[in-house]
Amino acid sequence: MSHSLRVIFAGTPEFAAAALAAIHEAGFPVPLVLTQPDRPAGRGMKLQASPVKRYAEEQGIPVAQPTSLRRAGKYPEEAAAALDLLHATPHDVMVVAAYGLILPQEVLDIPPSGCINIHASILPRWRGAAPIHRAIEAGDAETGITLMQMDVGLDTGPMISEIRTPITATDTTATLHDRLATLGAQLVVDWLTQLERTGQLPITPQPAEGVTYAEKIGKQEAALDFRRPAAALARQVRAFDPFPGGAATLDGALIKLWAAEVAQDVNVPADAEPGQILDVTPAGVVVACGEGALRVTQLQKPGGKRLPAREFLAGMPLVAGQRFALNDSPAA
């Protein structure tokens, strides 16, 4: 099916690439894609194109990668060139998903039907950079996608539509990310179709209550503090897969903990100290916490690979009584 509504797309990671692919495959003309500049990545730190750029180039869609869109910012010439390009590219609406650059009012004013953002939470909960991680970490029962009309605030614009999904006991940021990317892609195509048909979208201001901010995930947050309850640590491990993982130091070695669950069936001895290994079996390593115990089922030793407990223990035997350090050691 072909559409006449012209969509400029701005986004960077896989989450955004899923939306761009859905818009393009639905037949909407995409005259221009904005994405972040290529960044060094991987062991060789070679410059890597973003998933959005890779998709756009495969489809022959023009790509621009300004460092900034703010005339008053650090890169005024790049911003001016990008703004000129936006003004010179005929389009009806802009769709933004995990782009990573601030859009000043001047950019928001260019598209005749405004800028629509695909945000991975039920706003106003988890405005900001890491809504998927923070929803899992906090133990939220559900999350979802909010489509909103952008304004200059941080995820403060009025809402067009939302779709919800439960957060399961086994969801990681990786699994929830993929589910939300699919939902966001479907939702934006549905509403672009509506916009094309009616020329407008319904908007509702966000509730004033329930605002929370999803701070960007820092590498140092990987360090697990076994003085916390096992349930909170299990959520942290799930929230931090694939980045930055959970980490703890054992006899001077930094061990990454990639999968863990509350060990419901374990009676923690009264004299057990947080971080102490209570039991080691092929099913997992049981560690005493401030409240309850954690069964770690997937681990990684320094320089090694992520392995199920059984395989990990074959290469690095652990025994009951060993204790993970409690110092807030920086996580690698």
TrEMBL record:
All residue ranges annotated as the Formyl transferase N-terminal domain in the record: 7-190
Single GO MF annotation: methionyl-tRNA formyltransferase activity
DNA damage in keyword set: no
Segments forming domain Formyl transferase C-terminal: 216-316
EC number: 2.1.2.9
Gene Ontology CC entries for this record: cytosol
Pfam families the record matches: Formyl_trans_C, Formyl_trans_N
Cited InterPro entries: Fmt, Formyl_trans_C, Formyl_trans_C_sf, Formyl_transf_N, Formyl_transf_N_sf, Formyl_transferase-like_C_sf, GART_AS, Met-tRNA-FMT_C
Binding positions ((6S)-5,6,7,8-tetrahydrofolate): 121-124
Keywords tagged on the record: Protein biosynthesis, Transferase
Keyword RNA-binding: no
CDD domains per record: FMT_core_Met-tRNA-FMT_N, Met_tRNA_FMT_C
Reaction equations catalysed: L-methionyl-tRNA(fMet) + (6R)-10-formyltetrahydrofolate = N-formyl-L-methionyl-tRNA(fMet) + (6S)-5,6,7,8-tetrahydrofolate + H(+)
Functional note: Attaches a formyl group to the free amino group of methionyl-tRNA(fMet). The formyl group appears to play a dual role in the initiator identity of N-formylmethionyl-tRNA by promoting its recognition by IF2 and preventing the misappropriation of this tRNA by the elongation apparatus.
UniProt similarity note: Belongs to the Fmt family.
UniProt xrefs under PANTHER family: METHIONYL-TRNA FORMYLTRANSFERASE, METHIONYL-TRNA FORMYLTRANSFERASE, MITOCHONDRIAL
Name of the featured protein: Methionyl-tRNA formyltransferase
Source organism (scientific name): Paraburkholderia eburnea
